[in-house]
Amino acid sequence: MEKAKLKRMMFAALFAALTAAVSWFKIPLPFTPVPITLQTLVVLLSGAMLGAYYGALAMILYITVGALGLPVFAGGGSGFGALLGPTGGYLFSYPLAAFVIGLFTTEYNGQGLKHHTISLIFREISLIIIFTIVSVFAIVSGIFILLMLALYIGIVDLSVLSILENTRLIALLLIALPIFGFLAKKYFSDKKFISLLKYESYFVIIFFVVFIFLDITFKIGFLTLWNAISKSNVPMVSLLSGQQRIFLIIVSIAIIIFLLFLIFYPKKSKYFSIDTILAMFAGTLIIYTLGSIQGKLVTGLPWNAIFVGWVLPFIIGDTIKLLLAAYIAKNVEIGKYMK
Fold first, then answer.
1. How far apart are CA 173 and CA 69, in angstroms?
2. Number of domains, the chain
3. Alpha helices, H only, 105-160
4. Contact 283, 101 (CB under 8 A)
């Protein structure tokens, strides 16, 4: 047993080093401080391949060495300044995302779970957190759908969007939903509760991709970026060239078709595990949420600007990385080396 634990700890250290290695891949974007990186790919893999606890341990090791000064964050960044900066929320989300992914997948997620009270408590807290995050995203998604229909019909104008800036409303959601999640967790079986969270995360991500597709295709201009000079919102689609729009439209359609295909995809496949893909959707929502919250706290930007700058530009790319991670996790048999 001790030998098996040592092997898993070694793999955790290996995944921490792998996260540091890919962090040098960084593509900055002009309208947001959040760059395109490959770190999230390894975060997804660590949870799916190492399990909940060792996947989280790998990310904790990664954050620790970065905080101590080693240049392992995106683009060679390091130190507590990076953790406390506008993009630090993504880093803090990595251990929780890896833990939830490991918890939601079928392999290795039960190791050491039944015999440690602390592990059980952390597990219960994690389920309530992801329930709250998924529910908030689902509610916000529903509001966006209703607003788009109302705007199209002409029932309301853009001033209604201020409801999403209501601090009291957000505070009420953050207080009420964990309580509801606790009750749901108490009266539903673990299997049903986890299945609910996985599928809710999946449909929220589909909505976001469809949302991007509609806005870019029909030039609705619903997605806006905050312009510090004019102190006004600028439609995101106005910043894209014709070729960029066509490329994003094609990629969005391809991802939407593939994601919808997963609903009918057989669970037993040599290419993908549907359970792993759904778990990774939940982990991705955690990364978006914690990253956005810290971005809001540090920059003070309005929520719509945070949503566009911290979440939407990365959904298509992150979905591709998610599918790649799910393929690797399915076809690389790491379990035999961890026994």
1. 37
2. 1
3. 117-153
4. yes
Which tens digit of pLDDT belongs to each residue from 170-229? 667 667 777 777 777 676 777 778 888 888 888 888 888 888 888 888 877 767 766 666
* pLDDT, tens digit (0-9, with 9 covering 90-100), for 19-35: 999 998 888 887 788 88
What's the token pair of residue 132? 């709250």
Query: CA 73 to CA 82: how far, in whole Å?
Result: 8
Rg (the chain; Cα; Å): 20
* Helices 52-67 and 88-104: angle between axes, nearest 10 degrees: 160
* Beta strand extents in the chain (DSSP E only): 26-29, 32-37, 224-227, 232-235
Tokens of 194: 């986890």
Give the span between the Cα atoms of 326 and 317, in whole angstroms.
14
Write down the residue that tokens 């962090």 correspond to: 23
**Ranges under pLDDT 50 in the chain:** 107-115
Residue 290, domain extent? 2-338
Element containing residue 208 per DSSP (H, E): helix 190-218
